[in-house]
């Protein structure tokens, strides 16, 4: 075994603003991959963790879901937020989604919605998603020639898709958007509701109150929507607990659109900043499948997940003790020089593209097919009508340690009606 390495560059993971400064972020990640791919980070307000930055190591950790588990620390959060989450769970109130669970319970819970995202179901959804994509391209045409693409288009289109699947009324969409931004935006000055976990707790309680009412309604009168599937699900013959039901709604309503909106806004930005690739794709839409994978790699909306060791082990020769946590940097893995040729080149024809934006192993994103379809439908609808586009201001990225991307993208453009 080698001596544990602590590299100052790894402090970038303990700084939510690093994701707003991409040159600084990628300089640190490139250095870590080359010099300290397994580095100890001990930097308040976070408890110590091991930063893992190489693609192969992250794949190996995610593949071994017995040695490396999600509980009790599935994402990086300040120590006081971790403590609050544990106390809430002990009181039967804390958030417990698929990302908080391990097998066998995780597998049983995942099965509840898996049929909704299988190929047959995706084919049935395609017509509706294509219609929604066209609706938002039409909206873009009518509000032009200038808009904040991230806030006016990229946020609302996937929100509409997932809320429609859940069967929620359109009048509630703005509330869901605000709560999602507050839940994932706890590190961002624009989105967070408060500066402490206690002040941010009402966001979660608002979600729970809303979905508790929804559960009662769908159990009384089931309908043909995803919300009814969740409300009436059973595990081993018993209905889900109130906290598991509410948590399921939360992960579907938030991760089901926030990550995709980040991919679409970041993808639009990439196509603007790489006009040769935009024109290449516009001239040959058969490249759309590889272009979508490259957008997802390039943006990497989910920045990290955490895993905790169930036994003493090692990664790349570095000893990691039982109970210690590893931070899996998907952003770094998606730029690993050992896996990607010219990783800092945006290439709509990149193939192969072994990105880890959807994770790997048993926790691979259950709705990945939906995300791919939404991105594909939107850019397939947009590009044939797009005559010109450029930045109308400086893009702004969200401060985060978990999920995020381009939150403001002012653009000027010309679209055919």
Please, what is the average pLDDT? 92
What is the quaternary state of this protein?
single chain
Round the Cα radius of gyration to an integer and report it: 21 Å
| Unreliable residue stretches | none
- Helix/strand class: alpha+beta
The CATH C-level name is Mainly Alpha
- What is the CATH fold-level name? Cytochrome p450
Helix-strand pattern: HEEHEHHHEHHHHHEEHHHEEEEHHEEEE
- The CATH superfamily is identified as Cytochrome P450
First-residue to last-residue Cα separation? 64 Å
**What overall form do the CA principal axes indicate?**
globular
Order of neighbouring strands in the sheet with most strands = 1-2-10-7-3
How is this fold's topology laid out?
Layout: H1 22-35, E1 38-41, E2 49-52, H2 55-63, E3 68-69, H3 79-90, H4 105-114, H5 119-143, E4 146-148, H6 149-154, H7 156-166, H8 173-184, H9 197-220, H10 226-231, E5 234-235, E6 238-239, H11 242-273, H12 275-283, H13 288-299, E7 304-309, E8 313-315, E9 318-320, E10 325-329, H14 330-333, H15 368-382, E11 386-391, E12 396-397, E13 406-408, E14 410-415
Helix pairs in contact: 5-7, 5-15, 7-11, 8-9, 8-11, 9-11, 11-13, 11-15, 13-15
């Amino acid at each position: 075994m080698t001596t544990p390495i602590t590299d100052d560059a790894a402090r970038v993971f303990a700084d939510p603003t690093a994701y707003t400064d991409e040159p600084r972020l990628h300089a640190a990640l490139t250095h870590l991959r080359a010099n300290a791919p397994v580095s100890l980070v001990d930097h308040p307000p976070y408890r110590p963790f091991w930063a893992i930055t190489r693609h192969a190591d992250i794949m190996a950790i995610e593949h071994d879901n017995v040695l490396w588990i999600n509980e009790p620390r599935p994402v990086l959060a300040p120590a006081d937020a971790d403590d609050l989450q544990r106390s809430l769970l002990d009181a039967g109130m804390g958030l417990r989604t698929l990302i908080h669970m391990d097998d066998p319970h995780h597998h049983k819970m995942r099965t509840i919605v898996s049929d909704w995202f299988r190929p047959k179901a995706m084919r049935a959804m395609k017509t509706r998603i294509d219609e929604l994509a066209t609706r938002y391209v039409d909206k873009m045409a009518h509000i032009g020639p200038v808009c904040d693409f991230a806030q006016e288009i990229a946020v609302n289109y996937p929100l509409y898709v997932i809320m429609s699947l859940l069967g929620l009324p359109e009048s509630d969409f703005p509330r869901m958007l605000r709560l999602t931004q507050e839940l994932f935006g706890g590190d961002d000055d624009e989105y967070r509701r408060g500066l402490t976990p206690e002040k941010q707790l009402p966001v979660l309680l608002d979600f729970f109150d809303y979905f508790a009412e929804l559960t009662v309604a769908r159990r009384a009168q089931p309908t043909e929507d995803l919300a009814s599937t969740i409300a009436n699900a059973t595990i081993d013959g018993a209905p889900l607990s109130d906290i598991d039901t509410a948590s399921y709604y939360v992960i579907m309503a938030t991760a089901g659109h926030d990550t995709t909106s980040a991919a679409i806004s970041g993808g639009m930005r990439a196509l603007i900043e790489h006009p040769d690739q935009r024109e290449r794709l516009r001239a040959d839409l058969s490249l759309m499948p590889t272009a979508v994978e490259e957008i997802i790699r390039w943006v990497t909306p989910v920045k990290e997940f955490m895993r905790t060791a169930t036994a003493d082990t090692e990664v790349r020769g570095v000893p990691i003790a039982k109970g210690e946590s590893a931070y899996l940097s998907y952003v770094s893995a998606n730029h690993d020089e050992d896996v990607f040729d010219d990783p800092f080149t945006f290439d709509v024809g990149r193939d192969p593209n072994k990105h880890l934006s959807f994770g790997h192993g048993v926790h691979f994103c259950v709705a990945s097919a939906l995300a791919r379809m939404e991105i594909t439908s939107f850019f397939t609808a947009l590009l044939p009508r797009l005559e010109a586009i450029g930045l109308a201001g400086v893009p702004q990225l969200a401060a985060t340690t978990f999920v995020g991307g381009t939150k403001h993208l002012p653009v000027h453009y010309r679209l055919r009606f």
